[in-house]
Amino acid sequence: MEQLAVYISVIIYLGVGSAIAFFSKKFLKRDFKDFYTASGRFGTLLATLSYAATTYSAFMFIGLVGLAYTTGVGALGFELIYFVGTLLLLYFIAPRYWRIHRRYGYVSPAEVLSARYGSRAVGASVTLLALVSLIPYASSQVIGVAMAAEGASGGTIPYVTAVVIAVAVALLWSMIAGMWSVGWTDVFQGMIMLLTGFLMVFWVYSWGYSARGFDFASLGPLSYVPNQYWSFSTFLNMTIPWFFFAITNPQVVQRLFSPKDHKTLRSMIVWFGAYGLLFTLLVTLLGLMLRGLTIEGSFPMVTYRDSVTPTLLGMAPLWIGVLGLVAVLAASVSTIDGILLTLSSMAARDIYESYRPESTRLKLLVGRATLGVLALACTAFALARPGFIVDLSVLSSSLLLPQAPIVIGMFLWKRGGRASAVLTLISGFAVAISLYFTKMTPLGVPMNAWTIIVSSIVYLLAASFERGPEGIEVFLGVGGEES
Amino acid sequence: MIEKKAFLLFSLIVVILMYLIPYLVLSGVDGPFTFIFWTGLSIVYLIFVAISMRR
User: Fold this and answer.
1) Fewer beta carbons under 10 A from the terminal one: N or C of chain A?
2) What's a Gene Ontology MF term here (chain A) (predicted)?
3) C-alpha span between A106 and A112 (Å, rounded)
4) What is the reported pTM?
């Protein structure tokens, strides 16, 4: 009976989502730009929930719940540093990206960097960096779904089946109508995620705490920082790439092209903030409350932190288990399809079209083929189960971090061209990857601090000696003008 | 321009407080205080951004 209910709920979710994706096709104009950016025609609801659902992923329902459960309240600070950093960066950067897209019609975030730094090599380098870096992040979404499915179904939905379903759905929904199908399914999924977050917290509270309330003090060292996990160095290391997430992850940068006007863009930022704060509080509170229940013996001790939510889904009443599974699926698929779509647009625009301009008719085909290749790569990576969801997610953002100086510098400084941008990317990536594998922390400074310091210094030094390309004043004028 | 500088200054203060207060002032203090501090400051910042965006 339970197994049947799980299958039926997943089928209903897939059916409704696919119907929405096909419905969205009526908005699609059959051209490359509209497929990848919706030609800047999203209203506030679509833009907000699309941005939120792309940003918030299995990382939240599986990774952050488990992180809060295992390490305590530091998990909240870690996620809220992201929140503050994102609002700060969006306030300054989002209107500039939006205006540049409006004026020049750029499709991918890397294309903007190519234009600013006067070389297609910059866009190609950023694209290669993103292709390598985002595979772990996209794969961590798939891992989250598969674990939740195993937990909610009591093992009747095997890990491999769940992986294949999640990737296939993400692929299907991104190919049906590009940004339109991804955006509309994001609205559906964003609502499921928030509603389920409320219901799960409400249920856990009424199940475990209705008689006496939740007492933070019962968590002991998990109720404050520093504790055994959250040393200041660890906190700094994990929050730095998260702080810059909004400008280094191309799948969210590309969302800045979609609002229909400047007012919609501003509303999107504020409503996204409200959604994000609420969702973060719900998810973190869920992890902390479950830990409180473990301390008093009502919830089993879970040692593998990504298994906390699946354990809850397996224990909870059927309706909570099923809703939770669908919410994890929604959170994951809405992020994977966004990543696949953005990476395919970058591969088509910034590598293929950039170097084969005579073959522009084939670029949409190249984009779709890239979607398929990336989906296979994510499946293979997820089947290997290489690590914790939070760690994989932070690793992706760490590798993308060297973009931060060149994105910020793009709008603030007239100096710097191809050499500055490419050197910054190479040096930052080299530092990140070498410190990650050697586990070294020179002078006691964590890896991500070194990455941002080295890439920023290289950028400042190189750009000091290199003039910006011709026409940059016009470019900066559009990017920096007041609204 | 002054408004943007004020926004940046306030934002940087918020970011610094997010790091320092829990690790210095609330370090080792049992209970909901760290949770409330991070949550409260984030709410204040969201309201500040919403007001700044309306201008």
Assistant:
1) N
2) symporter activity
3) 6
4) 0.94
Q: What pLDDT was estimated at residue A480?
A: 55
Task: List phi, psi (to 5°) of A154.
Answer: 65, 30
Cα separation, A274 vs A253, whole angstroms: 19
Query: Rounded to a whole number, what is the distance in Å from the CA of A160 to chain B's nearest CA?
Result: 38
User: What contacts A335, CB < 8 A, 6 or more positions away?
Assistant: A53, A54, A55, A56, A57, A58, A59, A138, A141, A251
- Closest C-alpha to A323, from A162, A170, A152, A160: A152
Q: Do B31 and A76 touch (CB under 8 A)?
A: no
Distance in Å, alpha carbon of A225 to nearest chain B alpha carbon: 6
Tell me how close the Cα of A216 comes to any Cα of chain B, in angstroms.
Answer: 5
**A223 min Cα distance to partner chain B (Å):** 6
Buried/exposed A157-169: b ≥16 CB within 10 Å, e otherwise: bebeebbbbbbeb
Residue in B23, B35, B42 closest to A216 by CB: B35
Pick the residue with more confidence: B15 or A148? Answer: B15
- Residue-wise pLDDT for A104-157, tens only, equals 889 999 999 999 999 999 999 999 999 989 988 888 888 888 888 888 777 778
Cα A85–chain centre separation: 14
Nearest neighbour of A270 by CB, restricted to B30, B32, B50:
B50
Spatial separation of the C-alpha atoms in residues A88 and A346, rounded to whole Å:
26
- Say what the alpha-carbon torsion angle A314, A318, A320, A324 is, to the nearest 10 degrees: 60
Is the Cβ of B13 closer than 8 Å to some Cβ of chain A? no
Residue A302 corresponds to which amino acid? V
Of B4, B28, B30, the CB nearest to A217: B30
| Interatomic CA distance for residues A462 and A464, integer angstroms | 5
Both tokens assigned to A223: 């109720």
Q: Does residue A225 sit at the B interface (CB-CB below 8 Å)?
A: yes
Residue A347: closest CA among A41, A339, A188: A339
Q: Is the CB of B28 inside 8 Å of chain A's CB atoms? A: yes
Query: Cβ of A355 under 8 Å from any chain B Cβ?
Result: no
Are the beta carbons of B46 and A270 separated by less than 8 Å?
Answer: yes
For chain A, the structural domain boundaries read 1-401
